[in-house]
Amino acid sequence: MSAPGAAATIAVYLLVLFTPGLLIGALAGARGWLLAGLAPLLTYFAAGLAGPWYAQLGVPFNVPTFLVAVLVAAAIAFLVGRRRVAEPGVWDRRGHLAVALCLLAGAAVGARTVLSGIGRLNAVPQGFDAVYHGNGIRYIAETGDGSLTGTGTVNWYPNGSFYPNAYHLVGSIVYRLTGAEIPAVLNANTVLLPGLLALSLVVLVRAFRGRAVLAGAVALVCVAPVTLLYEALDFGPLLPFLLGIALTPLVAVVLDGYLRRPAPDSGFLLVAAAVGLLTIHSSTLFGGLLFALPLLVSRWRRLWRLLPIAVAGLLLGWLQLFGAIGLAAGPLPYNGWPTAASANTAVGILLTFEHVAPHPQLWLSAALVLGIVRWQRLGSLRWVAGTALLFGVFAVAVLSSGNPLVKAVSRPWWNDPYRFIAMAAIPCCLLAAHGLAEIQRWLRDLAPRWAWVAGVVTLAGFAVATNGLYSTSNADVVRPAYAADGDLPLNRGEAQAMLELGKLAGPGDWAMNDRADGTAWTYALSGVRPVAGHFDPALPPADAVLLAAHFREYETNPLVREAVQRLHIRWVILGHGGYPRGAERPPGLRDLDGLPFLTVAYRNADAVVYELVR
After folding, report:
1. How far apart are CA 48 and CA 323, in angstroms?
2. How far apart are alpha carbons 184 and 245 in whole angstroms?
């Protein structure tokens, strides 16, 4: 993918993320940093509600209907909104400028880290989860089906499987507008994640009247921990989850705003933010509530004011809520993850920001320890220390205990240690930034006339000491998950075979494939539906099970011929590698060369495409 094409795709994603949300937020009365921070979340709110409700009404989700949903949300915002919500005047003009420069620097370093790790914008994420998201975005773009089970039909046909889909709905809009390859659409969002996280934390500091130096520091610090964003890109990649945690701090902002001043405009922003997180992923809303729990405890006398918000949120998000409950109560197996560390080791992981990376990030650790020691100087943000403790205890329990209660409570996050480590890193980043702000305070007090110099020295010194906010070492962690050659789930040769299949196949054609190789990506890359659209072997369709075991009996087995006709299978595509690595080819797909009903249509060193000729 050319550099101008990559830049254009990222720019379009930025416009799609921010423009609808800016309109909705401005009409609701938000201004300044609050408006900028809430804009992406309000966009997901509009898209994430529109897709499923349109599906209930038989309306397709596409660019025009998305714009209609934005206009409806904007009209509601106008009706309930005040013309202007004043922001607290803590920072002067120089403070705003300094924070903006730090935000831009943090976003640029984070984007550079991700781009350096993935190599090119259209690199295919090699992890287990990415194929679902790639196939899901293409499915919505091609079918207009915005239902909460629609993306799952690529693998669990015909009825699908519940999955919150705001991430995929917005991605489908970007795909339609740009025509970019699906991996490029996935990665364009990923490149923006560090900047979105930095913006959310800046808005949090601003809303709770934190100093400008703290806001600038957190914008830089939050893109440095390898355990926050980058390990989860190597492991999953956990794309909707990472998007959700990047926006999670905003819940505390709108929650506090509503509790301090209950009104239609502040209530609208709170409901929209909460439902927006829910539509990205169910666990994101739960994580947001946990993030704000210490704040809620400190405001316990006002909690009754949240009753109408809960009712409104339930009415708007009941499709997502009951879908999540149905998934948890359904037949999908849930076993949790094995214990990964002792309690002492788990605490060390959190304090040193070292999990799977080869070295601890000690400068971050030093800033974190100082921030913890001086937590009482955080002012209105002291509650964040409680969030850090809460998430830390949760992460240590998940890492070190196989207790059934721990697994049950952590089920919204699949008992996944990577997710809990990432969530714990968010409040730790704010505490580490507070540690740097305290160093600036000490330097400022030594020379009060040179306060701005103290800030520059502190933050620039941290950036230098961490070798550019650990950008190079963090990129090294991401890189293996986006490699293109070798024994991978999907390498260049397999991807090329999928593109060739896309040229050969006609409308509606399906392709037989092996679930355990990279051909699960076939739909995302070529538009041709494969029989197995995910590496996940849980609850496969009956036709997929039959064909995996008996496809090579096509000429003699009437059940196989019926399944082939039912699915409109006209092609076979086989690669190698995948999940799990080293998996044996299923019996029905072994030794296909020379079978009289198949002819080779394309072959390279890594993959082969057969045409079904009779």
Report:
1. 14
2. 22
